[in-house]
Amino acid sequence: MANINKIKGRIGILTGGGDVPGLNPAIRAITIRALREGFEVIGLRPGWKGLVDIVPEKGADNSDSYWMLTEEMVNRVGRTGGTFLHTSRTRPSHVPASLVPTHLKDKYKDEQNDLTLEVLKNIDFLGLDYLIPIGGDDTLSYGVRMHKEGVKVIAMPKTMDNDVPGTDYCIGFSTCVTRTIEMTHRLRTSAGSHERILVIEVFGRYAGFTALLPTMAGAANRCVIPEYKFDIDSLAELLVQDRYTNPSKYSVVLVSEGAMYEGGEMVFKDQEKDMYGHKKLGGIGDLISEKMKELTPKYNNGTRVNVINQRLGYLVRSGDPDAIDSIVPMAYGNLALDLILDGV
Questions:
Q1: Which residues are catalytic?
Q2: CATH pick for 173-317 out of 3.20.20.450, 2.60.120.10, 1.10.10.10, 3.40.50.460
Q3: How far, in Å, are 96, 107, 128, 131, 275 from residue 112 at the CA level?
Q4: CA distance readout (Å), 3 to 11, 33, 343
Q5: Is pLDDT of 132 > 50?
Q6: Residues with Cβ < 8 Å from 245, sequence gap 6 or more?
Q7: 184-202: b or e for each residue (b if 16 or more CB lie within 10 Å)?
Q8: pLDDT tens across 14-36, in order?
Q9: What does the pLDDT look like over 162-181, one tens digit per residue?
């Protein structure tokens, strides 16, 4: 039970960026430990947007922006995927005029607006003593800004890309790898039945872990990752050889969405950028598939090898967390409270 006789402080939690399995277990772990240690816990939603949208006036309806969290509330969702606090890619220091909250539009009229002052006012309005943002490098980069502004921040790494600096593991990565292996094995039946090359594109942005680790686990013959440009002719030759040596006459390559071949560039689905300056990657798998059709006759006695092209997309970040993404968030949540109790 929470210690309601002596409140040690108030903690705010938010989840930002892309959703992954493991967020709800993290929220649950933080909340239960905090309540039992004598803290109150506020869930900010969705992401940093919650701290932008709050109207800091007594009697204002801010129910869309924050909730007081209870054990009963977090226990209901603690084993599920996604984030029940919802998420956004809001960057309070770079808010477009069209997304400035209605009650602030008279004050902020620039094309891009820094609403950090409003965020600080809302943190004070809520009486937050500590802030725990759970996110990737984008979400946590604004956590750095909050730290520089004097807010006590405990940052928790989360991204299926597993590329947040300063940590060996980010929440969501294990489930992504597990799902990728499972789905690749399922697609093998079609690739083998039709004796084709299977090209599978996976998320990962600028890091190759989501393609490399499943390949190391035996899900694919080859992988291409953003860290190293690859030779498209060599890839075609290798996949034809892999297919030839496979009794079922198929081969598999996992393609990180940020991969580039020599002489090529990163492939983007569109040119629109989010608040953190990122364009949406996607399409390198399509390009490789077409190149394989074009190049395979060169290495297959003049005969083209047909291709199955599949983008796994959101399937690898959806659903319930695996064992690792159930255990690690619990450990991270308790570590966050240890740091708070130690006065970090």
A1: 161
A2: 3.40.50.460
A3: 5, 13, 27, 25, 10
A4: 14, 11, 19
A5: yes
A6: none
A7: beebbeebbeeebbbbbbb
A8: 999 999 999 999 999 999 999 99
A9: 999 999 999 999 999 999 99
Average the pLDDT over 303-322 and give the result.
96
How would residue 6 be classed by pLDDT, with cut points 50, 70 and 90?
A: confident
- Biggest distance spanned by C-alpha atoms of the chain: 80
Please report the DSSP string for 81-132 in residue order. SS-TT------TTSEEGGGS-GGGTTT--SSEE--HHHHHHHHHHHT-SEEE
pLDDT at 275 (0 to 100): 65
Helix, strand, or coil (residue 67) = strand
| C-alpha angle 97-98-102 in degrees, rounded to nearest 5 | 90
The SS3 assignment for 214 reads helix
233-273 pLDDT, tens digit each: 999 999 999 999 999 999 999 999 999 999 877 777 665 66
- Residue range(s) occupied by CATH 3.40.50.460 in the chain: 173-317
